[in-house]
Design goal:
mainly alpha; 5 helices; 0% strand; membrane; DoxX; transmembrane helix; transmembrane
Length: 144
């Protein structure tokens, strides 16, 4: 990478810290994407219960978004598209699938926890989206 880092990532160890963040975030997202394929039937049933139209198509589609986004962030391949896919996924699915304000009281805590987890991941995805136009250290570099 010739020692170039995004402007907000300067100083000793910044490139390595950013790499660790990419690995942690990307692996979790890719795992979540694979889970959409491995557990498609149960996830489709849950999505149908939440009112998702064409849930049996939406689950693998969103699984693909997560898999592409996770691997893209992890490897530094088309990072703007990868982070954008994650942002789009989280903006749409978070209030739709984790509507803690609209579920019975015994389900509210679980849904709120999932909602807040997604909001935190949205913040991270936005940070990767902002960093996407800069050159990433230790990246494949396609689309950078």
């Amino acid at each position: 990478m010739n020692g170039v880092t995004p402007l907000f990532l300067s100083g000793p160890g910044a490139s390595e810290a950013f790499l660790v963040a990419r690995v942690l975030f990307g692996v979790v997202l890719a795992f979540m994407g694979l889970n959409h394929f491995q557990n498609a039937d149960s996830m489709s049933g849950y999505a149908e219960m939440k009112g998702v139209p064409a849930a049996s198509l939406a689950v693998p589609f969103t699984g693909g978004m997560l898999l592409f986004g996770g691997l893209g962030i992890l490897l530094g391949v088309f990072p703007v598209l990868a982070a954008g896919a994650i942002v789009a996924f989280l903006v749409v699915t978070t209030p739709l699938m984790h509507d803690f304000w609209a579920v019975p009281e015994d389900q509210q805590q679980d849904e709120m926890t999932a909602f807040l987890k997604n909001v935190a991941m949205l913040g991270a995805a936005l940070a990767f989206l902002a960093a996407g136009s800069a050159e990433w250290a230790y990246a494949v570099g396609v689309g950078l």
